[in-house]
Amino acid sequence: MATFSRKSSVGKTDYNMSSINSILQRSQAAFAVYKKVSGKQKALFLEAIASAIESLGHPLIQTAMQETRLPEVRLVGERGRTCSQLRQFSALVTEGSWVDARIDTALADRAPLPKPDIRKMLVPLGPVVVFGASNFPFAYSTAGVDTCSALAAGCTVVLKAHPAHPQTSELVAQAIQLAIKETGMPDDVFIHVPDSSFETGKALVQHPFTKAVGFTGSFAGGKALFDYAAQRPEPIPVFAEMGSLNPVFILPKALVARSDKVADMYGASITQGVGQFCTKPGLLFGVQSEQLERFKTQLADRLKAIAPATMLHSGIAESYVHNRASALRQAGVTLLAESNAQPLPEQGTPTLAVVRAHDFIQNQQLSEEVFGPYSLLIAADDIHQMKVAAALLPGQLTATIIGEEEELHAFSDLAELLAEKAGRVVINGVPTGVEVCPSMHHGGPFPATTDARFTSVGTDAIKRFVRPVSFQNFPQKLLPDELKDSNPLGIWRLFNNEWKK
To answer: Is the backbone of residue 87 left (phi > 0), alpha (psi -120 to 50) or beta?
Structure first.
């Protein structure tokens, strides 16, 4: 196992600068080898990781249940998503065109100056430090999308395990190590760091061999890592997903036509996973009317009937209680409904609050995320005031519009505005439930993420860990295989100014 510990590889371990330096030196040495591994070999490696995780069977699920308090059905589904992600990236690197190869062949007789032979493709950045997430112990942790997209790109990975599920992380790390041995990859292509200290995280980010960072978690955590990276003599990219309010705009005619169905959808979405999804709808906007009052009652009734549930760990539960109370103390905010059942310690109470749009617009604190089963309904005087509130929102992962077809067309400017605010705009649905597919964009303008151009879901996530390089007048033997004339991949190339396949 590529782990560093004094006594046990599980839990908090004391790291000093010497051991951190050793970790990154080993990762850099492995990168020098791994970056030359072919796409087909990397594909076999990713497939082997998926198979090794699956072979852990139910004991892995049981361990994760004990550590995260998540139900079995959720964890089984998330493990399946994780293995599916690995296989999607395997297929991507097998096919190979993701490197975006471009070839401009030479024109020796061009006047007034000859044209050189120039070929360009994407190449891996180098060692990537990945921070495991607390709310997704499989899909965004040890072998999650940050890890598998970095490995697919040809980068090595140093994984800092999340302290909320250390044994789960250890088991998955062992599966990755097994896949390394089975496929003959460099031993240190993946290094597991089971340490819970902030100091270790900072040192990993600021080590000169680290070339990029992947993170999913709180705004405070992601922004701190971003700042650490910016303070380096050589700044590096930090791809941090830091949360979102995921506003929902419910248009008037939709409430007239189907307020009960909308209440059903959003009662379930707000409380899914005890509200511990980055796509939980935290803000609901509507125009004040009799229909909105009816919707308030319907949604309140749904939330009252949903029992409190145990949150991921005590820290998240304590933060929810504190942030919920702070939100409810804000001027003009009224508690509309909470679960009829009394919560046990470390449980999250489903909660709906309401505020007038005027008060919401005046209070920036109401645009701060409450991570858990809490949502705030904002009653606007009219559509114009709803749009004013929307224009003041910070960057989001998602934004949703609920409307009938004619009003969707009538207020198309709202959709245009939300496309500037969010990475994914949803019509007549819920933001929870992120489809893992090539067309999914899971990212958004700051502060939702640190770089809205990139996604942490889908195969485009590989683009975070690569950079373009042009090769000018290279002999065929020195070119990467993807840029050689004999390359069999179905990549579009520019030969003598004519596109050919």
So the answer is: alpha
